[in-house]
Amino acid sequence: MRQSQLFMSTLREVPAEAEALSHHQLLRGGYIRQTASGIYTYLPLGWRVLRKIEGIIRQEMDASGAQELHMPAVQPAELWKESGRYEVYGPELIRLHDRHEREFVLGPTHEEVITSLVRQEISSYRRLPVNLYQIQTKFRDERRPRFGLLRGREFLMKDAYSFDRDWEGLDVSYRNMYNAYERIFRRFGLNFRAVEADAGAIGGQGETHEFMALAEIGEDTIVSCSSCQYAANLEQAQMATVMQGKSTQAGEGTTELPAMETVRTPDVKSIQDLVQFLQVSPDQLIKTLLYKTDDKLVAVLVRGDREVNEVKVKSYTSSETIELAEAEEVRLATGAPVGFAGPVGLSLQLLVDNEVASMLEGITGANEADMHLLHVRPGVDFSLEFTGDFRNAAEGDSCPRCGEPLLFHRGIELGHVFKLGTKYSDSLGASYVDVDGREKPVIMGCYGIGVSRVMAAIAEQSITDERLVWPMSVAPFQAHVIPVAVKDEVQMALAEEIYRELTSAGIETLLDDRDDRAGVKFKDADLVGAPSRIIVGRGAASGEVEFIGSDGEKVNLPVVEAVRRIREAKL
Q1: Which reaction does it catalyse (predicted)?
Q2: Is 445 within 8 Å of 439 (Cβ atoms)?
């Protein structure tokens, strides 16, 4: 394509609203334009990248045996109420009514619609297994859209759904999709990790993994082992239980420990305040936090230097929702304001983290304003009936598989694979008659990729010194031919010749035929991000050009050699 005909509007200044590098570059390069908060128009450059991403996904999904269909974005609210997710999904679910006051939602995902379709179309084991997928726009009313395409209210997504006769069949479908995802993300040229994850609002009854692109701007924390292959997101990350005082003091008893003591702590409400007031370290403290799980209050106990993992608490209590108790709820349950809750004498279910259970003694709130308790003994002064892993992993914790230290990275979630089991087939009545004549629920899997998010993640990993270099597989143009002076007949003739040769070889090439200054052309080329550039300048008369590859190295080469390198890079 000739650049004079390309609908491309570059920006010289970094837009004020752009926080992520990818957001900067995609706006500056004329890939996207914001229409409303979290809603973007894809301009020709951006759409070319997006279609290539879609193409790779389609190739691998089709190769895996999945079949493409297309479902409506507008979904009947009745389906969401039938599945039980209408209220659970919360304010992110965009609701609307038609002229007849029938209620609909804009689909953030399609489990309800696809399950409804399958219950209508499949009734016999002979039609199972099957895997159906689509690439379609989704809608979520994000409270705070940010980072451009990384967290928007309207986004493009690939979602696939497998239907099997039994769990063994689901295991095969799940591994098939897992392997397809690894191939897809490798073809994108991404630095990524597959990590154990939580199912979140999608739900499920088994294994689930997230595929994460490593990037500092990522909103997710990846916890991985420094030695083995263990990796999980922070919500799901486990750690080896390291017993503290009780393991080292086994058999010695607790009779020599000081008796529990009440100490006045006026206006000391935070962990940091208490550390300074008592001149102790945070790991000597026991935090007691009250949570409302569905309609029940529970108390979660973690060490003072740890954070409660709400996903683990939610899973342990089998709750649909979880949130910190309001100040008044804390006061009614403990008799004290927030900051002074403790487990001693508290009439709530106590969820005690493993680290707390292993402590010989600790400092807790006294359930009385401005008062704390010293020398509180877990298992003696409060119950250890409900003990488990209720905290976030911390960097340096021991790997649950091999015991080596855990490392932390930032990541962007690109894809998620779930074993749904019968969560939706039970609630929506999707069943089949098996070979034995018995009616059974179909066993489901769910597999999503954030297509527009992938575009941003690739850009995020492909920017160096304000220069964007797309991987060959998704670049809007694979080669960029730039004559320095279009009025120079020799330069322009050679540029045209190179352009024709590359195009004939099936290489998508952009020819900068604009009568503009060289500096402007080079700056725009940094934004276009073609992995190969040929600059036609003073050496044109002798058949020599400047070649810049994806590594950014500049080298003067004969035209034949420059073209050969581009051909090889495309293979």
Answers
A1: tRNA(Pro) + L-proline + ATP = L-prolyl-tRNA(Pro) + AMP + diphosphate
A2: no
How many of the other CB atoms lie within 10 Å of CB of 118? 24
Residue 192 near residue 166, CB atoms below 8 Å: no
- Calculate the CA 439 to chain-centre distance: 37
Question: How much is the pLDDT for 203?
Answer: 54
Q: What is the largest CA-CA distance in the chain?
A: 97
Strand pairing class (286-293; 296-303): antiparallel
Rounded Cα gap, residues 454 and 117, in angstroms: 28
The residue ranges of every structural domain in the chain are 14-237+408-460, 254-388, 477-570
Treating both helix axes as pointing N-terminal to C-terminal, what angle do 167-187 and 44-63 enclose, rounded to 10 degrees? 140
Note the helical H segments in 300-416: 310-316, 327-334, 354-357
User: What is the model's pTM?
Assistant: 0.87
330 within 8 A of 341, measured Cβ to Cβ: yes
Q: Is the dihedral of CA 492, 496, 502, 508 positive or negative?
A: positive
| DSSP collapsed to 3 states, 462-485 | CEECCEECCCCCCCCCCEEEEECC
Token readout for 339 is 């900051």
Pairing of strands 479-483, 532-536: parallel
Q: What is the residue-averaged pLDDT of the chain?
A: 93
Residue range 352-372, pLDDT digits in tens: 999 999 999 999 999 999 999
On whether the CB atoms of residues 385 and 202 are closer than 8 A, the answer is no
Residue 3 pLDDT level (bands cut at 50, 70, 90): very high
* Check whether domain 254-388 has CATH 3.90.960.10, yes or no: yes
Q: What's residue 245's pLDDT?
A: 54
Tokens (6 digits) for 283: 């790991």
> What DSSP line would sit under 430-452, residue for residue?
-EEE-TTS-EEEPEEEEEEEEHH
User: Residue 38 carries which side chain, given as an amino acid letter?
Assistant: G
Q: What angle do CA 109, 114, 115 make, to 5 degrees?
A: 115
CA–CA distances in Å: residue 120 to residues 415, 420, 431: 28, 19, 10
Instruction: Give the residue from 337, 326, 339, 320 showing the smallest Cα distance to 271.
Output: 339
- The encoded tokens of residue 513 equal 């035929």
| Residues near 31 by beta carbon (within 8 Å), at least 6 away in sequence | 25, 42, 43, 45, 46, 49
The Cα–Cα gap between 542 and 322 comes to 72
Among 488, 525, 489, 531, CA closest to 508: 531
Q: What DSSP element (H or E) covers 243?
A: none
Classified by CATH at the fold level, domain 477-570 comes out as Rossmann fold (3.40.50)
Residue with tokens 């487990």: 343
What mean pLDDT is predicted for residues 423-427?
94
Q: Beta 544-548 vs 532-536: how paired, if at all?
A: antiparallel
Beta strands 154-164 and 130-139 are antiparallel
Domain with residues 14-237+408-460, CATH architecture: 2-Layer Sandwich (3.30)
What is the rounded distance in angstroms from the CA atom of residue 157 to the CA atom of residue 452? 7
Q: Residue 143 in 3-state DSSP?
A: coil
- 214: three-class secondary structure by DSSP: strand
Q: Identify the sign of the CA torsion 489, 495, 497, 500.
A: negative
**Amino acid at site 466:** E
